[in-house]
Amino acid sequence: MPDPVVLKSGAEPWGAKPRRALSRRNIVLYGTLLVAALYYLLPLYVMIVTSLKGMPEIRLGNIFSPPVEITFEPWAKAWATACTGLNCDGLSRGFWNSVRITVPSTLISILVASVNGYALANWRFKGAEVFFTILIVGAFIPYQVMIYPIVIVLREMGIYGTLTGLVIVHTIFGMPILTLLFRNYFASLPEELFKAARIDGAGFWQIYGRIMLPMSMPIFVVAMILQITGIWNDFLFGVVFTRPDTYPMTVQLNNIVNSVQGVKEYNVNMAATLLTGAVPLIVYFVSGRLFVRGIAAGAVKG
Question: Is Transport among the key words of this record (predicted)?
Fold first, then answer.
């Protein structure tokens, strides 16, 4: 074994000064994080344990106690047999409606917004500043004020109350903020790459497909998470622009939880809530690291 390093007489030790594990700073920092984590995790814990209890156990009143006898019957009922208005087929129909709404809305809006952001960042076409200003205004207009005109437009097009109409609405409302994200991200990439590609004779689509897209995975993940979360959790557009047979999952969840007929089954309500929120949570947990990277990269330039 090598001999330990011995400091010469009078020499000062070098390197970072070790910090105490229980310093005041660490206590405040981790204490705050612990309180915040408990604040958000406690309701989730209550929902999970309630969804795994039977109604006789729930009537005992201790919402924080773990289930004495675990049952998955509330989950099965919430998915397949719970009444969501006139229909009693659970959340299964709404789940597939939400999938048919979310997938095309996310893909179309991200593809169009990425091309828009790329053009605004690297190709200074005529009227680009006006177009960018319109996007900024559109990104911050409350969409509630646009509901009635959109209803009229979709009705005249003959697609009001259909999944196609709701896909168009989500696609249009998602593009302004996504375009801003992509524009900022592409503006943060080294401009020399774009200029070198232009010198080599590459055109608009060649640069976009061969250079920009391979370097843009983090911002695509950010856009995907934002769109999936926003569209999947949407209630207002779903209840306004669709009909009972095409209701998304969130509208059906509202019908289950707010039902005034029969016994209030809190375990079924909690199971239905967890089933409805499962998709965005899974998407975020799978790609959360890329989400943070994309947000940080897209905030470099304005």
Answer: yes
